[in-house]
Amino acid sequence: MKIHDVQFIKSAVKPDQYPDYDFAEIAFAGRSNVGKSSMINTLIQRRDMVKTSSKPGCTQLINFFLVNESLSFVDLPGYGYAKVSKKVRATWQPMVENYLAGRPNLLGLILILDIRRDPREEELSLARWLGSHNLPYLVVLTKADKLSKTQQQKRVAAISSRMDRDRDKVIVFSAKTRLGRDTILDEITSLVEWYHTQKGETD
Ligand SMILES: Nc1nc2c(ncn2[C@@H]2O[C@H](COP(=O)(O)OP(=O)(O)OP(=O)(O)O)[C@@H](O)[C@H]2O)c(=O)[nH]1
Ligand SMILES: [Mg+2]
What are 86-144's pLDDT values in tens digits? Predict the structure, then answer.
């Protein structure tokens, strides 16, 4: 897939604020500060289309972007950031869960982990939830530039086994070197093609 056009559509906290379109949608989820927003910037090749920060808790709303006027990317707020107040955390979880459960055009998720860290309960339970709702997801291990090639392969083996995933469904990525960018875009393209086939059959 070649990306030639990206527009920021809007931010939302609840379903009646989501954009009223049914373009195939891909959401980016993961722990706070893991690099979700940076990954979207790398995929769309805009250094700062999506706001990023070295401080966790940067993205606090659900942000919708329209790619090539036909594909929607959604940057989700991160979970598991201990320093935000209980009140803020209590609004995040339903915000993301409502989105995942209530967005009919959501095709799949990019579940992002820091390649150096083991998945924790949040990632494992999100993966189980996606599985039980038949929502496809791709596991992407980011910040790979922090490790050597050998260390990367060791982490792929450990994390894919922990998450009970085929190794070839776990992608190594770096926003810094763009490693893995084309693979992620290819996977997204396959998902979108599958979505249009399905839609074509029911429309
Ligand atoms: N070395 C390295 N740093 C990265 C990479 N991806 C992101 N970062 C850095 O990690 C920090 C967090 O990146 P963000 O993209 O803002 O993370 P996020 O997951 O969107 O964070 P929240 O919006 O707070 O949930 C920033 O300082 C980025 O520069 C990467 O692949 N390699
Ligand atoms: Mg962010």
Answer: 666 666 678 888 899 989 999 999 999 999 999 988 889 889 888 988 999 999 999 99
Question: Which ligand 1 atom minimizes the distance to the CA of 51?
Answer: 16
- Nearest ligand for residue 110 CA: 1
Sketch the domain layout of the chain as residue ranges: 6-198
Nearest CA to ligand 1 atom 9: 35
The superfamily (CATH) of domain 6-198 is P-loop containing nucleotide triphosphate hydrolases (3.40.50.300)
**Ligand 1 pocket list (CB less than 6 A):** 30, 32-38, 52-54, 56-59, 77-78, 142-143, 145-146, 174-176
Instruction: Please give the single-letter amino acid code of residue 123.
Output: E
Cα 93 off chain centre by: 16
* Cβ within 8 Å of residue 133, ≥6 positions away: 100, 101
Q: Judging by beta carbons within 10 Å of its beta carbon (0-12, 13-18, 19+), is residue 167 exposed, middle or buried?
A: exposed
The one-character DSSP state at 142 is E
